[in-house]
Write a structure and sequence with these properties.
The chain is mainly alpha-helical and 335 residues long. The protein has helices at residues 35-65, 72-100, 110-143, 148-151, 154-180, 197-201, 209-243, 247-275, 284-308, 311-324, 326-334, and strands at 19-20, 25-27, 106-108, 184-185, 189-190. The strands form two sheets. A three-stranded mixed β-sheet has the order 3-2-5. Strands 1-4 form a two-stranded antiparallel ribbon. It is globular, with a radius of gyration of 22 Å.
């Protein structure tokens, strides 16, 4: 186990002669846990991983294949599913492999560690910004329905998507570069399931104030600001929903908003709990346990929420299945 349970581990007393770039990083994960428990976690988390991939690919496939879903809302849902699939592929396979490897952790090169960190931040940042773009889309659709077709054009949708990806990538590149420019003390034992920002930053020597400030700025730009915009947008949307329209229209709009708000609360809640805290107040072991939730459970809930609470998605899925199964197509014609 790594000495020191908090991210506030003091390295300033180590002599500069011990500062060196490690030849490799060791991702410890849960390698110190009993083998039987690690195998059990693997058996529990593998089905969740496969279900997450299938659920998000299903949402993406429906958004692409169904003409009825070729709208801005489902464009952003398809983009969100794509980001979730990439996010899952970056983190989960290596984490699952770590449960089956012998004790001692997984060795990765510094370039691999940096790439994993950068991809994680870029995809997570793009997702944060995409949720804000989805809130903007619902705000325009419900609060300004007469102008919505002229405002939310195909070009604007692609522009928002490109901006979300570019914003996440720029922050990821800046943070990763800043952290890996630092010297590291006594090798690179990463007490986490992947090369997460705080878990690697704690290994660095010297003055880390710049990196801490950059992490704080990233949290403000990717967590606080989008969440405020989302809450303001949906507050206005709810006011409009409750004031106009018939009962059926209000119910459909409310279900859509409820789905988006549920996803936003899950995403920003987990992200805030992980990254909007000072390094000195963090626990390595607690962060690893929380990571099991936001890596494995939260991405699985997204397709479940959107498909179970969305009648358009349910109808599209039924039409696709009925087209593939002749018996069901005949039954659908009879009904």
């Amino acid at each position: 186990m790594v000495k020191g349970k908090a991210y506030g581990l003091n390295t300033s007393h180590w002599p500069e002669s011990s500062w060196a770039a490690p030849q490799e990083f060791i991702i410890l994960g849960f390698s110190g846990w009993p083998q039987a428990l690690r195998v059990l976690l693997f058996a529990l988390l593998l089905p969740l991983y496969l279900a997450t991939l299938m659920g998000n690919l299903l949402m993406l496939g429906l958004a692409l294949a169904e003409p009825a879903l070729h709208t801005p809302m489902y464009f952003f849902l398809g983009a969100l599913s794509t980001v979730e699939v990439a996010y899952t592929l970056v983190l989960t396979p290596r984490m699952l492999a770590g449960f089956l490897l012998p004790p001692g952790g997984q060795a990765v090169t510094p370039s691999t560690c940096a790439a994993q960190m950068a991809l994680f931040v870029a995809l997570g940042g793009a997702e944060c910004l995409l949720l804000a773009a989805m809130a903007l889309d619902r705000y325009l659709a419900i609060c300004h329905p007469l102008y919505y077709p002229q405002l939310m054009t195909t070009g604007l949708c692609w522009g928002l998507l490109a901006s979300c990806c570019a914003g996440g990538s720029i922050l990821a590149l800046g943070l990763t570069t800043a952290i890996f420019r630092l010297p590291f003390c006594r090798g690179g034992l990463v007490n986490h399931v992947f090369c997460d920002l705080p878990a690697v930053l704690v290994l660095a020597c010297g003055n880390r104030d710049l990196q801490k400030h950059m992490l704080l700025v990233a949290c403000l730009l990717l967590l606080v600001l989008p969440l405020v915009l989302i809450l303001l947008s949906y507050t206005r949307v709810l006011v409009v929903i409750l004031g106009v329209g018939d009962a059926a229209g209000r119910r459909k709009a409310f279900n859509t908003v409820a789905s988006h708000l549920t996803v936003a609360i899950l995403h920003y809640g987990c992200a805030t709990a992980m990254y909007a805290r000072p390094l000195s107040s963090r626990s390595l072991e607690e962060d690893k346990l929380v990571s099991l939730i936001y890596i494995n459970l939260t991405p699985l809930l997204y397709p479940a929420i959107y498909t179970l609470r969305n009648r358009d998605m349910q109808g599209a899925l039924q039409r696709v299945v009925s087209q593939r199964v002749p018996g069901m197509a005949h039954q659908a014609d009879l009904t």
